[in-house]
Every structure is written in structure tokens, then in C-alpha cells.
Amino acid sequence: MLANKLSSPIMPAIAIREVVEEAYAADPEMIASAACDIQAVRTRDPAVDKYSTPLLYLKGFHALQAYRIGHWLWNQGRRALAIFLQTRFL
Questions:
Q1: What residue ranges are annotated as transmembrane (predicted)?
Q2: Sign of the alpha-carbon torsion through 43, 88, 83, 78
Q3: From CA 19, how far away is CA 48, in angstroms rounded?
Q4: Which terminus of the chain, N or C, has fewer Cβ atoms within 10 Å?
Q5: What pLDDT digit, counting tens, does each position of 8-61 carry?
Q6: Cα-Cα-Cα-Cα dihedral sign, residues 62, 68, 71, 72
Q7: Dist CA 78 CA 57 (whole Å)
């Protein structure tokens, strides 16, 4: 889902998906943080009645996950790719 949101003609969804999977495999804490984010939205937002809602519809949730992946990429020295992901949410 996130890969589709971040894709562009320059970088297709499948390439972004590989980067996302690499980041999540290297830092499983990102997955735990995403789960906490989903729980927080579900608990605090009365308009959200399903756990899938942030995953499917909430741009802020998507932006936060992209930020985490971009931050990981930046720390890995892959700065051009980190900046590319960041600009997809401007």
C-alpha cells in the first residue's frame, strides 16, 4: 500500500516495496511503531472504527511511515533515495 502511494514514473511501486521491506527487515522497531500508531489513531479518533482505516485512508499515517523509512535510508547513507521519498509527500 505505501509503495503504491510513493511510486512515480521514476521509481515504480515494486522498487519502493523492496526498499520498504529492506528497511522493515533491518529495523523491526519500525513495524512496532506503525502498530502503535494504528492503535493510537483507533483509540483517539472517533471517526476511525477499524484498524485498517489508517492503513487505507489516512495521509498523515502514510507520511509518518514514509518519514521513518526515509530517516532509516538517510542514516544508511542513501540520502538521494531518502530525499526522493520525502518529496513524494509534499
A1: none
A2: positive
A3: 29
A4: C
A5: 888 999 999 999 999 999 999 999 999 999 999 999 999 999 999 999 999 999
A6: negative
A7: 28
Domain that holds residue 48: 1-87
Cα–Cα dist 90/88, whole Å: 6
Which residues, other chains included, contact 66 with Cβ-Cβ below 8 Å and sequence gap of 6+? 2, 5, 6, 85, 86, 88, 89
Task: State how many domains the chain has.
Answer: 1
CATH value at residue 23? 1.10.3130.10
Give the C-alpha separation, 85 to 10, whole Å: 12
pTM for the model: 0.88
State the residue for C-alpha cell 471517526: 47
pLDDT at 1: 74
Q: Write the pLDDT tens digit of every residue in 64-86.
A: 999 999 999 999 999 999 999 98
Q: Exposed, middle or buried by CB within 10 Å (0-12, 13-18, 19+), for 18?
A: exposed
